[in-house]
Design goal:
There is one protein chain. By secondary structure, the protein is of the alpha/beta class. The protein is built from eight helices and twelve strands. The protein has a single domain, classed as Rossmann fold (3-Layer(aba) Sandwich), CATH 3.40.50. It has a six-stranded mixed beta sheet with strand order 6-9-10-3-11-12, sandwiched between helices. It has a four-stranded antiparallel beta sheet with strand order 2-1-4-5. A hairpin with a 2-residue loop joins strand 1 and strand 2. This is Transporter. InterPro entries: ABC_transporter-like_ATP-bd, FeS-cluster_ATPase_SufC, P-loop_NTPase. Keywords: ATP-binding, Nucleotide-binding.
Length: 247
């Protein structure tokens, strides 16, 4: 589904990714772990097409298409979802407005008919109920006044509505208490653990991986994947840290 070959990227002329190679197949969940400054968020933003992240080398194939040749909205329409460590607030725009426009924009990009207001509300309510997000939260401005846990639940609702093929989740566990972590983990499993989908889960800690069991764990250090393994690698990192691996 996703094949990254020798990817180099920089920010403001500073190289961050320095020859990263990684492949994800459909049906797989991959966790990326590593110390601060390793390039984890840069990888997520580069794949998502965020402005300011310049690719200077390498290739990224997404379901047979050149991901790097697509605009951000084209990547989204092709099935890529990017979850942020710190979801942004959008004053004056309700969650219902935002999510309906996002979904229908992607449907139009794929040549599918837009959902009516009633059709969309049925989808939105189903996803909100599954994540324990109160219905009145859908009427509020996007993330304005939301707690950290509410923002992450709202983002999972968005992911459920969009129903992507590949989810890149950048430190989704950041700022979550135990209960919210369980809800978000269950949401990821419910939405994305399917034979035709894949997840790239970026995290500092093992704790999210107690709920979302990865098939593979990779250590990112100084812009490269320096070690890969199974779920046991995350437990080793939790015990021993990154110092020896990242050296």
């Amino acid at each position: 589904m996703l094949k990254i070959e020798n990817l180099h990227a920089e920010i403001d002329g500073k190289p961050i990714l320095k020859g990263l190679t990684l492949s994800l197949n459909a049906g797989e969940i991959h966790a990326i772990m590593g110390p601060n400054g390793a390039g984890k968020s840069t990888l997520a933003y580069t794949l998502g097409g965020r402005p300011g992240y310049e690719v200077t080398g390498g290739t990224v194939d997404f379901n047979g298409a050149d991901l790097l040749d697509m605009a951000p909205h084209e990547r989204a329409a092709a099935g890529l979802f990017l979850g942020f460590q710190y979801p942004v607030e959008i004053p004056g725009v309700s969650n219902v407005q935002f999510l309906r426009e996002a979904l229908n924009a992607q449907r139009r990009g794929r040549g599918e008919p837009a959902l009516s207001g009633a059709e969309f509300l049925r989808v939105a309510r189903t996803q909100a109920d599954a994540l324990g997000l109160a219905q009145d939260m859908l009427k509020r401005a996007v993330n304005v006044g939301f707690s950290g846990g509410e923002k992450k639940r709202a983002e999972m609702v968005q992911m459920g509505i969009i129903d992507p093929r590949l989810a890149i989740l950048d430190e989704t566990d950041s700022g979550l208490d135990i209960d919210a972590l369980r809800v978000v983990g269950d949401g990821i499993n419910r939405i994305m653990r399917k034979p035709d989908k894949a997840v790239l889960l970026i995290t500092h800690y093992q704790r999210l991986l107690d709920y979302v069991k990865p098939d593979f764990v990779h250590v990112l250090s100084a812009g490269r994947i320096v070690r890969s393994g199974g779920p046991e690698l995350a437990l080793e990192l939790e015990r021993e840290g990154y110092r020896d691996i990242a050296a």
